[in-house]
Amino acid sequence: MKFFNAFCSTLLLTFLSIFTSNAQQLENSTLWKISGNGLETPSYLFGTIHITCDATLDANVKKALDETEQLVLELDMDEPNMQAEMMQHLYMKDGLTLKDIVSEEDYEAIDNMLKKHMGISVTMMQTMKPFFLSAALYPKLIDCPMMSFEEELIKVAKQQDEEIKGLETIDFQISMFDEIPYEEQAKDLIRSAKDDLAYDKSMFAKMMKIYKEENISAMIDMMNDETYGSVSKYQDKLLDNRNKNWIPKIGKYAKEKPTFFGVGAGHLAGKNGVINLLRKAGYTVEAVE
């Protein structure tokens, strides 16, 4: 269960966090207070990073968790059927395999990469969607045991006997990937194989540094990278539309009771980022620095 939770979350960070270039400079903070617009008590918005070496929650985050009464993440990661739902969407349709969509040379490069880093041949996984093959390699991009802020937030919520909810469902998230042709998905996997994960490792190291600095605006500049061009064509579906869909849901949850929202930090800044969209909807959103 733990593997599939992390598996799904890391998909969102790398492939759904391909941002627009319309960044708006914001304070360096990953924690924001939401108030006004009819809210009787404030809620909080926290930008997470799905893969990290240190998911320690700082004092401000813990205080915000104490002041709220429910936890809302991108997904309800405490859902017991999550693993089963994920399994239903792992594989390509119509009996396709990786051999059908990449060249023989690229297939061999991917096979060598998986054997080196995972100890398994691609022949054992070749019916999986290319995005999921890429995601299976994420733990290899950092030189430490993989940790997740979502898991830490869930621990606190359970200790406080609070409900855990989601802004989206697994079915909805996976459906977005199905709109991207498998050949396009495979481009990132091929790139990773040809440089033996060198680019991906450097990107994750830079991302973790920027996250530690809480520079959410710089995250947009960093991730607006044409190297991930196979996904950048679909920014409206994978990022902007999702952020817009979240705003009424965030408002609904926050009006029910003070809520702690945890979403990928890449969703916070920018013209179509959650902070700006909440402000447009009439909420006061202030950095907790």
From TrEMBL:
Q: Which UniProt keywords apply?
A: Signal
Hey, what's the signal peptide range on this chain?
Answer: 1-23
Q: Does the keyword Signal apply?
A: yes
Query: Which CDD domains does the record match to this protein?
Result: Tiki
Transmembrane residues, as ranges? none
Task: Kindly provide the name given to this protein in its UniProt entry.
Answer: TraB family protein
Native organism: Winogradskyella wandonensis
The upper taxonomy is: Bacteria, Pseudomonadati, Bacteroidota, Flavobacteriia, Flavobacteriales
